[in-house]
Amino acid sequence: MPPAHPFDDDKLREECGIFGVVGVQDAASFIALGLHALQHRGQEAGGIVTHDPQLGFNSARRFGYVRDNFTSSDIIESLPGPIGIGHVRYSTAGSKGQTAIRDVQPFFGEFAMGGAAIAHNGNITNANALRRELIERGSIFQSSSDSECIIHLMARSLQRNIPERMEDALRRVEGAFSVVAMTRTKLIGVRDPLGVRPLVLGKIGDGWCLASETCALDIIGAEFLREIEPGEMVVINADTGVESHFPFRPQPSKFCIFEHVYFSRPDSILGGRSVYETREAIGRELAKESPVEADLVCPVPDSGTPAAIGYSLESGIPYAMGIIRNQYMGRTFIEPTEQIRNMGVRLKLNVNRALIEGKRVILVDDSVVRGTTSRKIKEMILDAGAKEVHFRIASPPTAWPCFYGVDTPQREKLLAATMTEDEMTKHLAVDSLRFISLDGLYRAVGESQGRNKDCPQYCDACFSGEYPVTPADMVEQGFKMQPAAE
Ligand code: SF4
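^ thats the input. predicted complex w/ iron/sulfur cluster below
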């Protein structure tokens, strides 16, 4: 069984982390470490494929954490070779909620010119139409994952080599994709033309690596070289180095702004700046936009911490760890009883009563999704004797689902889709509730003029409802997009 999410079911969840390496001894050990550093991007399952010149391709796919599955010498020795790729997943498409092992990536295809494996982070928004077309033309799908379409499209391409077949395949695909792939000798990395999901390039000794985030380079001692550009494909050979192509029609980039707010690890570098610094800047902006008189600024652990520090620095109100997270939740209660499960948030978080009692408290959180956790945290803070509770949220109201590789509830379940800010304040029964503005968020991520409303510099669809790629499959299923502005 896949493990429960370690912390919170009231958050948006990034769905995948990807990693690849070429030109090292024992690629599998590097991949296992890289995937371990990317575990926050997917905790449900993981997989590794490697290739050895004598022993060919080998793969292992498992449910659960990387540390529990890919750290023994037995498994690493079963994955020999100097080149490989890996993937950690939650699930975006495919058998959501009850993943089968056949849906766990990387996927593998055998072509006339040799085998190839592929791991994908993102979501293909025209996957249903592609799958129908491919099945009609004779493709036999092994999984329910949208990513498998890429392998079948490659199989149908008439190009002579695997990188060119991959270009052909990805030109048919709409939506968000960062891909790492491998042949027997080449490591390939691609980002979609909008660059929605991240992918970075690193150097390790004589070898090279690709990863969703720079924290996965740090753990193996690799040097961060650069981000792969939106629409770029790199083909890396251990002997000849990195070749770069731009196979897609250029488009204005639309990187996911929520990576800055929540998904990426705070020690990763995005857009030339540490994610931690950006989150602190978000907190400062929030303090400028929505000041309130109070005695303490407390983060909702752990993701609210840098923004709370920023809010405290800007406002001059002392920062305090008013809520303590139980670090070992999820390991302690393997099969909790019903009574323990009902304790909910209290299992994960505890209020530091000695700090809170009699105080006016500002709670800083990264987002409000369903609002269920926010409500419980507020109750815990009041139970501990707080005089006032003010929520400050480091993202704008999340009012629209994401179709680009992030697990979001249906629109009706998003608190901000059905309530105004005032209604949410009453619903959560807090003294005040304020979200950072969309312009404020853009300023904090480095866009000094705020959001360019004619051509937003980022994807912000979950806040604005303006989808940079029409989610064709969802529209076909009845999803109503925001009407275009007059
Ligand atoms: S909709 Fe939101 S979470 Fe999804 S890619 Fe866009 S900004 Fe990121």
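Residues 196, 256-258, 402, 404, 406, 459-462 surround iron/sulfur cluster (CB under 6 Å).
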